[in-house]
Amino acid sequence: MGNPDLDPEISINKEIGLEFNLNGYNAGVTWFRNDYKNKIVSGTEILGNTATGANILQWENGGKAVVEGLEGTLLVPVIADTLSWRTNATYMIKSENKDTGNPLSVIPKYTINTLLDWQVTSKFSANVNWTLYGRQKPREYAEIRTENGVLATNEVGSYSVVGIGGNYQLMKDLRLNAGISNLFDKQIYRENEGASTL
After folding, report:
1. Residue 4 CA, distance from chain mean position
2. Domain boundaries defined on the chain
3. Which of 42, 64, 135, 161 has its CA 20 to 30 A from that of 176?
4. 3-state secondary structure the chain
């Protein structure tokens, strides 16, 4: 649920990387570290329940946090100017609240995105994409008093979603995009003392 009282997130970002290009092929690897103040995270207090029984939580500021990891990218021109395959992967080295040591919410251990893009005509292109999300660890201990006894104790396992999309160049500076990012309506729940949390 949204929160009108959120303070803006402030971060200091550092990264260093290497990139390779040759005959349309592209590959790269990057190390990054982001130090946050007022990091926006999923809240810990249950505000209510949905019609299906899932808990309703609210976004909140989580204090100081650090996110550190590696990202790799790969572009392969399968058929020059017609079909290309793009993949990127992110591996999290560290993702935690600096004050408590708890893992940050909704940040998986790794993410892999792969996309096949088909340039059908000079103006129209279509794509299909697949994203794999790694496991997400729950908080290891309570951060506030009311959270005791209702901590999510089970991590979310890895899962994947499929999407499709297309775009049409209407004119020089105007393009129409459309797509479905979760084609099979995959829904993931984190178990929390016998109740599901969205």
Report:
1. 23
2. 23-30+68-197
3. 161
4. CCCCCCCCCEEEEEEEEEEEEECCEEEEEEEEEEEEECCEEECCCCCEECCCCCEECCEEECCCEEEEEEEEEEEEEEECCCEEEEEEEEEEEEEEECCCCCECCCCCCEEEEEEEEEECCCCEEEEEEEEEECCECCCCCCCCHHHCCCCCCCCECCEEEEEEEEEEEEECCEEEEEEECCCCCCCCCEEECCEEEC
In a 10 Å sphere around its CB, with 0-12 CB exposed, 13-18 middle and 19+ buried, how is residue 97 labelled? buried
CA dihedral 160, 131, 136, 5 (to 10 degrees): -120
Among 14-28, 60-74, 141-155, 172-186, the range with the most confident prediction by mean pLDDT is 14-28
pTM of the model: 0.71
d(CA 150, CA 144): 11
